[in-house]
Specification:
This protein has about 90 residues and is mainly alpha-helical. The chain contains three helices and no strands. α2 runs antiparallel to α3.
């Protein structure tokens, strides 16, 4: 139980600090941050798939790994969409 409370505390603090840091970033830096986030999400996808493929894992691990893959995939796809739109702004109009 003590480990769960410690993990929950770290999670809540990470959410709060992450929100505070991201809300202070100027809008011109959001796209480079999205690129870094895509790299981290790619690592999350690979790690979740490796974890889900291990033998003798509890059911909760499969569920959490599936949720992690889903959210990380949404983040990666969203990052590519934003980057594609941003690059479209720099194309010459015909």
């Amino acid at each position: 139980m003590g480990t769960f409370v410690a993990a929950l505390t770290v999670f809540v603090l990470a959410v709060f600090i992450g929100f505070e840091v991201i809300s202070k970033v100027p809008s011109t830096l959001h796209t480079p941050l999205m690129s870094g986030s895509n790299a981290i999400s790619g690592i999350t996808i690979v790690g979740s798939l490796i974890l889900a493929g291990m033998e003798n894992t509890p059911t909760i691990v499969y569920v959490l790994a599936g949720v992690a893959v889903a959210f990380a995939t949404i983040n990666v796809v969203g990052g590519f969409v934003v980057t594609h739109r941003m690059l479209g702004m720099f194309r010459k109009k015909r």
